[in-house]
Amino acid sequence: MTARVFVPLVGADGSGQQLFEAIAGATAPEAHPAKLVAQISELYDFGLYRVGQTVREAATRFCDVRRGRVWLGRRNARVHPWYLRISELQVGRLSDENARSAGLGLTLAAVLAAFDRPHGLVFATGEVLLPQDPAGLGTVAIGPVDGIRGKLGLVGDYLHRHRATLAGETVTVLLPTTAVDGRPLAEVEARTLARLRAAADDAGVGLAVVHLDTLDAIESLFGPFSAEPWISRRKALGAVAAVALVAAGLAGWSALAHAPVLISWVPVEDANARSIGPEATPRRARYRADIDKLELKPDCLDEQRQPVVVGGETVVLRVTAVDGRPFASWVAPPRFFIASVSRAADPVVLDAGLFRTTGAAAAEGVLTDAVAAIPIEATDDEIRLFVVATRDRTVSLSQLTEDLRSRLKGLEGAAVLATSAQFLKDRFDGQIDYQFKVTTDAARCP
Fold first, then answer.
1. Which of 174, 225, 267, 287 lies 20 to 30 Å from 369 when distance is taken between CA atoms?
2. How far apart are CA 384 and CA 339, in angstroms?
3. What is the per-residue pLDDT for 274?
4. Who's near 247: CB < 8 A, 6+ residues apart?
5. How many CB atoms lie within 10 A of CB 35?
6. pTM for the whole thing?
7. Which strand (E) or helix (H) includes residue 412?
């Protein structure tokens, strides 16, 4: 928006009467050869650059106070850019006295443009006085100026000449509160103001004469000036809610993607068994050529009640698995592996392709119900079989085997079995194991 404020000029001796427009808009001028400040560079040729510096400081302070009231402070507040220029003058350059009296009009135009505030037809005269506080604190004051009687006469003449187009409109005239002698201006120029009101009435124009002692007082006329936030509370709350929703979604996805897999042994001999108990452990079996099937054998235990398997037999495993969290497999279905670690041989990790399903309908929520047969070499040994599950699709079987062998390098005896258990627990989302001894003495286990 372009803001326009009329500024009447009259010297103290009544000479040099003229009326010009202070114009503030968002279009930046071309760079001045003298590298002047762009906001006020076009005032230079008319002798207004010095007062323009005061105007720029006053407008900046006015804007900064309102920007500071915005949520999150000044950096979150924005006002519209403004650049000052004026309409053509009848004289080339203004005297210092006339230039100072243009301060209020120029400042008002800048402020109205910065806040994009509609304003109607406005006349203004008065000197802008910056606070004398060294810290720059305080309020911008409006000081008295000379030639008020002649300036009000210029306003009256303008209303008379343009009465045809101004009929029905309201014109605002802004003046200092006091005259140059310190008395109230409304009393000193009471007769002149009365003539101006008569001229306005004759032209059918509404007239509002407002006396200002500070720049902040313009809010009583134009309403509060508020800077617009770059990020409003509503937008911030919306962004926070969106981020929280995304974070919750990611957290939920991560929780499901890393949810544990609960693996349990199921009794091998009962294809319909669902109960889990001490008897639900892998079983030893022997191959019978006459029926071409594996025949389950009774459990065989040593003196410490540890299971024993005869070398050459087969260990039959049956496992079932469920999600540790509901719907986790919808996000990341698990993969299953079988790992075999012994005191005497290198560890082996096999894909769950060894498993075959039982053929029975799985219970609701059960991920798998499968059986695997693991042949046992005829060597006296102690073996620990692991069934593990992971939701990580990037796990490489060869790399996993290599890492496990590297971890066990240099270990012997029980340390091999214990370290393997910890290694697999750290790497997988679910784990169950079965430890047994291998004997070559068939007589021990009928």
1. 287
2. 8
3. 40
4. none
5. 8
6. 0.61
7. none
Structure tokens at 284: 């030893």
Q: Are strands 170-176 and 121-124 parallel, antiparallel or unpaired?
A: parallel
Q: What's the CA angle centered on 89, arms 85 and 91, to 5 degrees? A: 135
Contacts of 106 (CB under 8 A, 6+ apart): 5, 7, 22, 43, 48, 51, 52, 55, 84, 86
- Sequence-ordered list of residues with C-beta below 8 angstroms from that of 17, at least 6 positions apart, any chain: 8, 9, 10, 150, 153, 154
158's enclosing H/E stretch is helix 148-161
Q: What are the residue ranges of CATH 3.30.230.10 in the chain?
A: 3-229
Q: At what angle do helices 103-114 and 49-68 cross, to 10 degrees?
A: 40
Give the count of beta carbons closer than 10 Å to the beta carbon of residue 14.
Answer: 12
Q: Which of 13-17, 324-328, 360-364 has the lowest mean pLDDT?
A: 360-364
Among candidate residues 92, 156, 147, the one with its CA nearest the CA of residue 125: 147
Q: What is the DSSP letter of 232?
A: -
Q: Write the CATH number of the domain with boundaries 3-229.
A: 3.30.230.10
Task: Let me know if 356 is exposed, middle or buried by CB neighbors in 10 A (0-12, 13-18, 19+).
Answer: exposed
Helix (H, G, I), strand (E, B) or coil at 58: helix
DSSP class of residue 442?
A: G
Question: Given this model, what pLDDT does residue 275 score?
Answer: 38
Cα separation, 265 vs 261, in Å, equals: 13
Give CA–CA dist 178/433, Å, rounded.
Answer: 97
Contact 309, 300 (CB under 8 A): yes
Look up residue 349 and give its DSSP letter: E
CA distances from 396 to 114, 321, 332, 389, 420 (A): 64, 21, 16, 13, 17
Mean pLDDT of 105-128: 92
DSSP one-letter code for 278: T
Q: Could you give the CA distance from residue 243 to residue 163 in angstroms, rounded to a whole number?
A: 59
- Angle, in degrees to the nearest 10, between helices 397-408 and 414-427: 140
Q: What is the rounded CA–CA span in Å between residue 66 and residue 17?
A: 36
Rounded to whole angstroms, how far apart are CA atoms 376 and 165? 109
Unique residue bearing structure tokens 């627990």: 425
Residue 94: count other Cβ atoms within 10 Å of its Cβ.
Answer: 23
Q: Tell me the residue ranges of DSSP E strands in 87-157.
A: 121-124, 127-129, 141-143
The rounded Cα 80 to chain-centroid distance in angstroms is 25
Phi, psi of 44 (to 5 degrees): -60, -45
Following CA atoms 160, 4, 58, 29 in sequence, which dihedral angle do they give, to the nearest 10 degrees? -140
What is the distance between the terminal CA atoms of the chain, rounded to a whole angstrom? 101
